[in-house]
Amino acid sequence: MRPRARARVAAAVPCFELARLGRRPGQAALHAHVPPHLVRFRNLPPTPVSTLERNRQIAMEAGLEYVYIGNVPGHEGERTYCPRCKKLLIFRQGYSIGEVHIAKGKCKFCGKPIAGIWA
Length: 119
Ligand SMILES: [Zn+2]
Hints:
Blueprint: H1 3-12, H2 15-20, E1 37-39, H3 49-61, E2 68-70, E3 80-81, E4 88-93, E5 96-100, E6 102-103, E7 106-107
Parallel strand pairs: 1-2
Antiparallel strand pairs: 3-4, 4-5, 6-7
Helix pairs in contact: 1-3
The structure holds zinc ion (ZN).
Residues 82, 84-85, 87, 107, 109-110, 112 line the site of zinc ion.
């Protein structure tokens, strides 16, 4: 990841998540397969959904392939999309999983390997 893109991701991804990686936000070296979760703060005042969406977009434009939005029921950011063909791979709503379009660790539509351990 380019330094400028890395800095934009550091601004977009909550610091406590980066802290789990054992690095300071400006020094984080995120691999494209690291799936950050932008979780909505639900106490007063709640995080605007538009803020989460903007940060998700920034992180994805910087090269992260799987960026999720949490605590926004029904939001498309709960789902997994293929980084190559952009088709829906896993439909999630809360803790429920519906459609899954991954076979043998690859996108069923274009064959791109999808990071993770799949049963
Ligand atoms: Zn695909």
